[in-house]
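Field: COMPLEX_INPUT
Field: COMPONENT_COUNT = two
Field: RESIDUE_TOTAL = 575
Field: MODE = joint
Values follow.
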Amino acid sequence: MTLNNTDLKRMASQVRRDILRMVYECQSGHPGGSLGCTDYLTALYFKIMKHDPSFNMDGKGEDIFFLSNGHISPVFYSILARSGYFDIAELKTFRKINSRVQGHPTTHEGLPGIRIASGSLGQGMSVAIGAALAKKMNKDHSLVFSLHGDGELQEGQNWEAAMFAPFNKVDNLISAVDVNGQQIDGPTDKVLGLLDLHEKFSAFGWDVMHADGNDMEGIVKALEEAKDRSGKGKPVMILMKTEMGKGVDFMEGSHKWHGVAPNEQQLAEALGQLEETYGDF
Amino acid sequence: MKKYTYTEKKDTRSGFGAGLLAAGKKNPEVVALCADLVGSLKMQDFINEFPDRFIQMGIAEANMIGVAAGLTIGGKIPFTGTFANFSTGRVYDQIRQSVAYSDKNVKICASHAGLTLGEDGATHQILEDIGLMKMLPGMTVINPCDYNQTKAATEAIAEFHGPVYLRFGRPVVPIFTAPDQKFEIGKAWMVNEGADVSIFATGHLVWEAILAGEKLAEEGIDVEIINIHTIKPLDEEAVLKSARKTGCVVTCEEHNRYGGLGEVLRNYCLLTLLPQWNLLQLTILLGKVVSQKN
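Field: COMPLEX_OUTPUT
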């Protein structure tokens, strides 16, 4: 399913409703980063990527995506269900016992759309590089996308991966960092400052871009440009500015909604700000 | 006591190198990754033959495990190579999440395992790796005993789908198994049939168990020696049959007493056999083996 920009915005509104209702239902989960990355993932799955919701693990001949910051699983699950990977009714089971829709994504439950477990941070860039290398070896010209949290970059493995990819010309990889400036214990600047990410990734050899991750036209354009910049000898990194909690005014811009579920009144207030466009699960 | 002889001694890591080359020739999906230890892991022959199927990772083991996991998604069969210490403890969480829990077909191949590493000292003589790896979901753990068995095991794991930890080492040890053997994952090898005591040995210590068996035979003790090359999944039938027969079990390995083959067998035997055991007999015999070796 490919949507135009107007429908992408309508879909993003629906996905945000899904996120809030999933997290409310089990009174657990991570709404903040999920809401912030909704526009990016909506653009990716409903416009940018060529992908097959009938789901083949090997992803041969299609674009594939890896979520490294697995705690924003609510947005990932909603996007996968809305794309047709599994029934949206399954979103109701989020974080519940025996559910395939676990707190953090796993593969052993066989949930279509998930190719790797994530949750323990800092591992997704390496996995995405491996998948990209396999595509090159297989002469498969489709692309690999990955998403990482900014706080997640404090994990050292990212920098092993960041050093490896440009040196080995892994130019079929388009990574994005969700630069929301927040992590569980507070603003990244207070917890462990990331300093200049543009300088850092450029110095490691990436082709670095910037985007407003909460402006649908902007993120679509940035992803299209990133595709154009792929295949030119360097991996592409999109530093994507987002607002944690985007779309719900009282959740925006604070780390306080990183991993907290709304109560009944807060849910009603939040849903009042987001139009139901494609039908709630 | 069955007589075992040898004409040549070789390192088990060279068996891995030869097995990797053979597996690469058989299956074009086999790829190799190494964290700056090509010479130590004996990967050069594979690299010469298949330069496009080798990935030099640099000294970055965590990234190596993740990249290997990603490669499986495109249908590749990655063999990672570094020392046992850096293959397990250093990257445990990467293996747990990206390989084991994600059921990725990665072959984690580790040289320089155990005390027989020798000169490099304690930081490199990992004695916890078997324990760490056997606890992971879906992980197969293999510790072959000589060059030929390591080569055969390397070829066998390429044909087996699922994550594997393959452990081998640096010292030269006698080659006493057949060059054309078929390696059966999870099937113990009866080295010598006996009636008085069962020695279950793994890795480099299988040869030492044979030497111990010969000495004990001189004292009239009839030793059964079984090579447990696959620690997980354990050949429970072989263990049970031998332990029931002799009523006395000794394990030989170069690993911490916690987590290794000894613990595996102790736990298994405690559950199934304890009432039949003569623990005093076991203690005396173990003391004898140790004192004679020293």
